[in-house]
Amino acid sequence: MVCLSIATHRVLSYEVADEAMVREIIRTNLGGIMTSFMKYIQRFQMFLLLRIMGGDPYKEAIRLLPAVTGDMGPLCETTLSSGPEETTLVVNKCIYHSVLVAEQCEFLITEFCCHSSLTWLRPYQKHSVGVSMDRCMAWEDTCCSLHISKKPGARPPVTPASGTDAQSTQQQQ
Predict the structure, then answer these.
(1) How far, CA to CA in Å, does 94 sit from each of 68, 113, 147, 173?
(2) Burial class of 144 by CB neighbour count within 10 A (0 to 12, 13 to 18, 19+)
(3) What integer is the mean pLDDT of 59-82?
(4) Which of 32, 51, 135, 169 could pair covalently with 28 via S-S, beta carbons 3.0-4.6 A apart?
(5) How far is CA 55 from CA 87, 115, 139, 159, in A?
(6) How far is CA 42 from the centre of its chain?
């Protein structure tokens, strides 16, 4: 997909003067239409997990990290450090970045690897979860660092059972 994106960018840049349009075509080729559809599914899943089942938003966000590393596969070397309040995924070696730099198209890195994974992690920011890309090879850092944390002052999740108990206690009084 990286090579296809590079070739698409090179060919269309000669034909289309609008860089934003070229990038949109590349995103569409990389599954942009399906991504739009999948975002609705993710919102519904988050509603079920966080509102109905009372899941912990931080734990739900870090559950996505195995899928992130799985998407990158053997093309990236990653390390994961996880704790009760913070989790960091560090990508030490990235073939995507190496190929894009060799082809002088490093600006396309935002369509791949950790950057595209931010699409699925950012919705958790509305639920007291901090999500940030602290370092990035595209910014001339030596690695990429994706950081997920509980925001200070985050309330613990309310479990459906405790919410029901609280209502029944109020009714009895």
Answers:
(1) 13, 8, 17, 61
(2) buried
(3) 85
(4) 32
(5) 17, 25, 35, 7
(6) 12
Instruction: Answer whether residue 166 shows pLDDT above 50.
Output: no
pLDDT digits (tens, 9 = 90+) for 24-39: 887 777 766 677 777 7
- Which pair of tokens denotes residue 17? 């003067």
100: helix, strand or coil: helix
User: Does the pLDDT of residue 66 top 90, yes or no?
Assistant: no
| Distance (Å, whole) CA 16 – CA 83 | 47
For the chain, percent of residues with pLDDT exceeding 90? 6
Q: State yes or no: pLDDT of 60 exceeds 60.
A: yes
Distance in angstroms (rounded) separating the CA atoms of residues 32 and 153: 35
- Supply the pLDDT for residue 88: 92
- Rounded to whole angstroms, the Cα distance separating 34 from 30 reads 9
Rounded to the nearest 5 degrees, what angle is found at the Cα of 165, between the Cα atoms of 162 and 170? Answer: 130
Kind plus residue range of the DSSP H or E element containing 54: none
Tell me what pLDDT residue 167 has.
Answer: 41
Overall size of the chain counted in residues: 173
